[in-house]
Structures are given as C-alpha cells and as structure tokens.
TrEMBL record:
Protein origin, superkingdom: Bacteria
An example molecular function term from Gene Ontology annotations: peroxiredoxin activity
Protein name as annotated: Carboxymuconolactone decarboxylase
Pfam families: CMD (PF02627)
PANTHER family for this protein: ALKYL HYDROPEROXIDE REDUCTASE AHPD (PTHR33930), BLR3452 PROTEIN (PTHR33930:SF2)
Carboxymuconolactone decarboxylase-like domain segment(s): 21-103
InterPro entries given in the database record: AhpD-like, CMD-like
C-alpha cells in the first residue's frame, strides 16, 4: 500500500494533497500491481527497493527503506540490496543507494 500523503516527501505530498484523485488512482495502481503475481511480503519490498535504486530515486529508496524496516526487514538485508546494485549499476550508484538507505536506518537507530 502507498504511504499516506502526510508521510511522503514534500513534492509527492503536495501532489497528493492538491490532487487527491490522482494520488488515490496511483495508490490503487501500486496495490493492483503488487497483487498481480505470487511475489509478496519481504521479497516484494526488497524488489521494490531494488527498483527504486535502479531508477536512482532517492525519495523512493527512503520510502521503501522506511516501509521495509516497519515490516521487520533488517538493516543488513536492505544494505545488501544496495551492494547488489554495484555490479549492475556501478560502484558510484551502489554507494549512493547505500547512503540513501543509511539516511533512514541511521535515524531509526537514534533514540
């Protein structure tokens, strides 16, 4: 399920609040795609994180990292996805993804 508009980065949140019907349709499309096949749970979240990394979308990486942590996926599993990006996307892109994941995981570690 897509994040609630108040939990989105500012740009996406503005679109969701200004155009709620667009946001609702977008969220429904995401849900429908997630339910279209047999992949589910942690595997689905890790695939979505990998796609966000491949798209070089910092906001999506942050979002999928937050949701993965809430679903019980470990920081080490998330970081491995970034490391797996290195041979395909290149060292700089994999490291960039790792730092985006750490943006979120380091906040989760603080009291």
């Amino acid at each position: 399920m897509a994040e609630a508009p108040e939990n989105l980065p500012s740009g996406a949140s503005r679109v969701a609040q200004t155009y709620p019907a667009v946001w609702t349709a977008f969220a429904a499309l995401g849900q429908t795609c997630a339910e279209a096949g047999p992949i589910e749970g942690h595997t689905l979240r890790l695939v979505k994180l990998a796609l966000a990394i491949g798209a070089l979308s910092e906001g999506a990486v942050h979002s999928h990292t937050r949701r993965a942590l809430a679903e019980g996926i470990s920081k080490d599993e998330l970081k491995q996805v970034a490391l797996l990006a290195i041979p395909t996307l290149g060292f700089p892109q994999g490291v960039k993804a790792l730092t985006w994941i750490e943006d979120v995981t380091s906040r989760e570690s603080k009291p």
